[in-house]
Amino acid sequence: MVDIFIPLVVGLLLIFSPQLFVKRANADFQKKKTMMKKIGIVLIIVAAIYLIGKLAASQSKKEELVKQIVESAKSQTNLPAELDSTTTMTDIIAVPGAIRYQYVLHDADTSSFSNATFRNLIISKLCKDESSKNILNEGINIEFSYAVKDSQQTYFTSFTKANCSAY
Predict the structure, then answer these.
(1) With bands split at pLDDT 50, 70 and 90, how would you rate the model's confidence at 19?
(2) 119: which residues sit within 8 A by CB, 6+ positions away?
(3) Distance between CA 15 and CA 138 in Å, rounded?
(4) For residue 89, is it within any domain?
(5) What is residue 2's three-state secondary structure?
(6) Collapsing DSSP states into helix, strand and coil, what is residue 119?
(7) pTM for this one?
(8) Phi/psi at 124 (nearest 5 deg)?
(9) CA-based radius of gyration for the chain
């Protein structure tokens, strides 16, 4: 961040205190002071553009990592996969900033279910799993989406690094 901080500070100094860089005794003091302010503005603009580019590159790297993790998980799983008598994992997909596991529930009474029900069932195991914690520590969320077969009912829960801080 020093690469952004230095031009930003110098730019701000040039804008708000150009007299630090120009001698007052100089006949062209006002002209040089105005020039210093313009240079300061340019430095701030350059720092902002650089920061935006750096953030975009970081986001791009994260999205690439999400894709790699999804590809790896899919190569190790035969989908659809029957997890138990009522749950089938149908897909693992990459979404912006997250890995989403998709399931279908069948032959189950879901009348008392809610998003919180699934969250409470998942959180402890997810947060204690080292590979899941590693994913979350990379700033990648882990999401779970459940659709009830032959119904419009769906459930969704998402986990971030902060959700697992107590585990």
Answers:
(1) confident
(2) 157
(3) 38
(4) yes
(5) helix
(6) helix
(7) 0.69
(8) -65, -50
(9) 26
Q: Domain of residue 56: give its range.
A: 2-64
Structure tokens at 19: 């007299």
DSSP state of 20: G
Query: Are both 47 and 108 inside the same structural domain?
Result: no
Same domain, 51 and 106: no
Rounded to a whole number of angstroms, the distance between the first and last alpha carbons of the chain is 31
Give the model confidence (pLDDT) of 63-83 as tens digits: 989 999 999 999 989 999 999
Return the structure tokens found at 60. Answer: 């791009």
Distances (CA, A) of 83 to 40, 45, 66, 167: 61, 53, 23, 25
Please indicate, yes or no, whether residues 128 and 60 belong to a single structural domain of this protein: no
85-137: per-residue pLDDT in tens? Answer: 999 999 999 999 999 999 999 998 888 999 999 999 999 999 999 999 999 99
As a whole number of angstroms, the distance between CA 129 and CA 135 comes to 10
- Residue 165: its H or E element: none
